[in-house]
Design a protein that fits this description.
With 493 residues, the protein is α/β, with parallel strands linked by helices. Helix content is 44%, strand content 13%. Helix 11 links the parallel strand 2 (221-226) and strand 3. The chain starts with a helix and ends in a 6-residue tail after the last helix.
């Protein structure tokens, strides 16, 4: 099967639902069905392999040890497919029983879709969906894990396109994620955490980053927390679709109730990568004042903007000796007056390693410019007391209303981070004491990376002179051509 065939097949399921439910809700029905079909087909594949290995021993072929996931009797895809009435009820029961049989791995993985609500999803429409998914064999032999994983990511991106403004809940621009991963330079055996993990793309990419390099990726330890139940379920399915088992993704409010703990304290990680929800107003500010996990290390953010609540959570979640982080933010975190004191303390603690400005439209369905705030708990000696600013605003490709980074853009910005040098109009290494003394802790990139301006009188005059010179040259050429043609008896119209 080709990638294109798989993508057309997957997107065909979404088209069946079009007009029945909102595009933003497609994901809560399509992803569980896809995962159900995948695990059922793989169970059959494992059963046949075990049957051949045991010379036809049926009991042996059913042993738990021969299957990645257990499917209880009567709960297989085929059992749902032959159901003709109350299909939603049969489907819901089957998914629930599979979760129970694989509780440690699959609890709540199928989300909370209303399968039994016939006003929303009729038996006829469910039959159409089930028959569509039944058209293709989703065994590992027919659809290897890499291909299936790529198809799943394609579906996530398509749902983001289709869902409009709600996409940012679960999707981060994958080219930006690639840049984030190259900057953190994740290594085998390390732990990676995303406190607002969405569909798990950032976590997943850290593993794929190692895999592409031919390095061991299966011992990478991935952790994530996500507020939305269906989105956290999608993230877990995303891992399984890519054949990644070493992960923990939990559902809940990270600021109000962080759930990834160790000895009743926040667990700490080698790497934290995040695209937090920005400037949220509804959060437990009063609780944060006396945060039981000690995350208010620089103070309490204003009620109208929780950004530095998340940023302090990120810092508190880093290992003191090896921790580094990168977070995607709107530019406001770099200069807003309401957060000035917290920002200055972050700089004084010498945690800010780099600030990278990105172009417009890289936040999903938003034209605002974004930036990467990179922190390091233990900077290398040559980077101590310094911050590198990188102006990558022009390193972007815009197509229609969507923007992305080409590999050359990613490479240039990543190289600028690692090379740690001044480059006129692009990067500047600045001492933290100068940031604090001269700009009162303002991290705005334009204060440190100077761009050439063409707004001066001299520049305008030069431009006009060039235009006039070009026009005169064109007129002279036209007259010369006209004279030559007249000599030949040809009149120009």
């Amino acid at each position: 099967m080709t990638q294109k065939q798989l993508e057309d097949y997957l997107w065909g399921a979404a088209n069946i639902l079009r007009g029945m439910i909102d595009a933003a809700d497609f994901k809560q029905y399509i992803f569980p069905l896809l995962f159900f079909k995948r695990v059922s087909d793989i169970w059959d594949e494992e059963y046949e392999d075990a049957l051949q290995l045991s010379d036809g021993d049926i009991d042996y072929a059913k042993f738990r040890e021969n299957h990645r996931f257990q499917i209880p009797d009567g709960c297989h895809w085929k059992d749902v497919r032959v159901t003709s009435t109350d299909i939603g009820k049969k489907l819901q029961t089957s998914l629930h029983e599979i979760e129970k049989a694989n509780f440690e791995l699959l609890h709540d993985v199928f989300g909370d879709a209303q399968w039994t609500n016939k006003r929303r999803l009729s038996d006829e429409k469910l039959i159409d969906l089930i028959e569509h998914f039944s058209e293709m064999d989703l065994t590992v032999k027919n659809v290897p894990h890499d291909l299936m994983g790529d198809g799943y990511e394609y579906l996530i991106s398509k749902f983001a396109d289709d869902a409009g403004h709600t996409a940012a809940e679960f999707y981060t621009n994958r080219t930006v994620v690639e840049l984030m991963t190259r900057i953190t330079n994740v290594q085998p055996g390390e732990s990676v955490y995303d406190p607002t993990c969405g569909s798990g793309g950032i976590l997943l990419n850290s593993a794929l980053y190692l895999k592409k390099q031919g390095k061991e990726y299966r011992n990478l330890k991935l952790y994530g927390q996500e507020l939305n139940l269906i989105t956290s379920a999608i993230a877990r399915m995303n891992m399984f679709m890519h054949a990644i088992d070493e992960f923990l993704i939990v559902q809940g409010d990270t600021l109000d109730n962080p759930q990834i703990l160790e000895n009743d304290e926040l667990k700490q990680f080698d790497v934290v990568m995040a695209n937090p929800p920005y400037s949220i107003k509804r959060w437990s500010q009063a609780k944060f004042v006396n945060d039981p996990f000690g995350r208010n290390i620089w103070g309490t953010p204003p009620q109208g903007c929780a950004d530095y609540g998340f940023q302090q959570h990120i810092i508190k979640s880093l290992k003191p000796e090896s921790g580094r982080s990168v977070a995607l933010w709107p530019h406001g975190v770099l200069f807003r007056d309401s957060e000035a004191e917290m920002r200055k303390k972050m700089i004084e603690d010498d945690l800010v390693d780099a600030v990278i400005g990105l172009g417009k439209n890289l936040f999903y369905n938003s034209s605002m410019e974004s930036c990467l705030l990179i922190c390091n708990m233990n900077k290398p000696k040559k980077r101590k007391g310094k911050v590198v600013f990188i102006d990558g605003k022009d390193e972007v490709r815009l197509e229609r209303s969507a923007a992305y980074l080409k590999d050359e853009h990613i490479k240039r910005m990543a190289d600028a981070y690692w090379n740690y040098k001044d480059e006129d109009g692009f990067s500047a290494v600045v001492k933290t004491k100068d940031i604090l003394k001269e700009n009162n802790g303002n991290l705005s990139i334009q204060l440190y990376v100077k761009r050439e301006s063409i707004d001066s009188e001299h520049s305008v005059e030069d431009l006009l002179a060039t235009i006039n010179k070009t026009r005169n040259s064109l007129e002279t050429g036209y007259n010369q051509l006209n004279s030559k043609l007249k000599e030949l008896g040809i009149e120009m119209s």
